[in-house]
Amino acid sequence: MKDRLFFVSSVNDELYYLKDTIFVKFNVKRNCISTSKLNGGFSRNLQSVFNHHLSQENIDYLESHDVEDYLIQLCWSLNVDSSYTTGLVTLARMKNVSVVYKTFKNIEVVAITTAGVRTNASRAGDPSSYYEENGKFGTINTILLTNVRLAEETLLEAFMTATEAKTVALNSLKIPSQYSNHYATGTGTDGLAVFSNLESDNTLTNAGKHSKLGELIGQAVIESVKKAVRKQVWLTPKSQSNVLVRLNRYTLDINKFYDELDCDKEEFIVELQKEMKKQDNVAVTTSVLNLIDEVEDNLIEKEDALVLAQNIIKENCNSYPIRKLLEYWINYFIRSV
C-alpha cells in the first residue's frame, strides 16, 4: 500500500498510510490516555499516534524482544520521533481500517479502528491464556480523536465509554468468546488511545453515556468496530444469522452428535445446509440458547428451562435437522448442568 494521506479531521489532523502503519499527525496540542507500551498512560506532549500491522516476521522477533524497543525501531524507520508519539500493534491489516466520524454542533469525534476477532475473542472473566508475574501483546485497536478539551478524569471517562461501545459492537454481531460459551466483550490484546484538543476553548466535563460527547463516542466506536470486523474477517449481521454459527458459541463435540445420528449423515447435512439460514430456525435456535445462558447464569432453574426449551422446539420447529441439533444441545447443557 502506497504512502498517502486519506483523511483530515476538522482541526487538520492528518491520517496517512505508511507501509504497514496508519499514522496520525496532529496539528493541535493534544492530551492522551493510551494502552501502548510506548509513552502509554496519560500524556500531554504527543505529536502523533499510529496503529501498526505485525507481520509473522515481526511476531517471531517479538518472541524474544521487548515491545517498546520494537516500537522505537519502528518510529526510526518511519522518521518519527519516538519521544513524542504512541502506537498500537495488531495482526489486522491496515487496508481494513475503518474511519468513522460523528458531529453535533461544535463537537467532533473520530474513531479509527482495525479489528480481528476470529481466534482471540474473549469475555472479561474467561479463563486466562497465560500468567504474568514480573513483566504479551491488540486485535481490536481504536484511536479516538475529539476536537474538544478534556481534563484527565474526563479523558478517562471517554476511554471507559469507548471500551463499553466496543463490547456493544461485538455483542450486536453475536461474536462468541473463544475461551467460554459466552459472547465476547473484546479480545485478549485490545488497544485504545483517546485524545482531546488542548487548544480548544470548548472544555467538556462529561464523556459518559448521558452526555452528547459520550453518545458520539459510543456511536463512532460501535460503527467503526463493526465496519472493521466486516472488512477484516467478513463477519456481518447476515453471516451471523445462521443456526450453526449460533450453536458454535458452545464448546461441544459435534462429531459425537453425528456419530449418534439415526439417519444418513450425508442426507442430514444436505438438509441442514438448506435449513440453517432460514429466519424461523435462527429465531428458534436463539430462543433455546438464551434459555441455556439463563441457566448457566443462575437466572432460571434448569427444570423450568428444560420444559420451556422443549415446548419451543415442539411448537415452533418443523425442521428435522434443526430439531435434532437443538435437542442435543438441550440434553447436554440443560439436563446435565
Summarize the structure in short.
Helix content is 40%, strand content 22%. The chain has helices spanning 56-62, 67-77, 152-172, 212-233, 237-240, 243-247, 254-259, 265-275, 279-296, 302-316, 320-335, and strands spanning 4-8, 14-18, 21-25, 30-34, 41-43, 48-53, 85-90, 98-104, 107-115, 121-122, 140-146, 149-150, 186-187, 191-197, 203-204. 39% of the residues are buried.
| Major sheet characteristics | 6 strands, mixed
Q: Which oligomeric form is depicted?
A: single chain
The overall pLDDT, averaged over residues, is 92
SSE order? EEEEEEHHEEEEEEHEEEHHHHHHHH
CATH third-tier fold name of the largest domain: L-amino peptidase D-ALA esterase/amidase
State the strand order across the main sheet: 5-4-14-11-9-8
CA gyration radius, whole angstroms: 23 Å
First-to-last CA distance: 52 Å
Give the CA-based shape: elongated
Percentage of β-strand residues: 15-25%
Computed structural class = alpha+beta
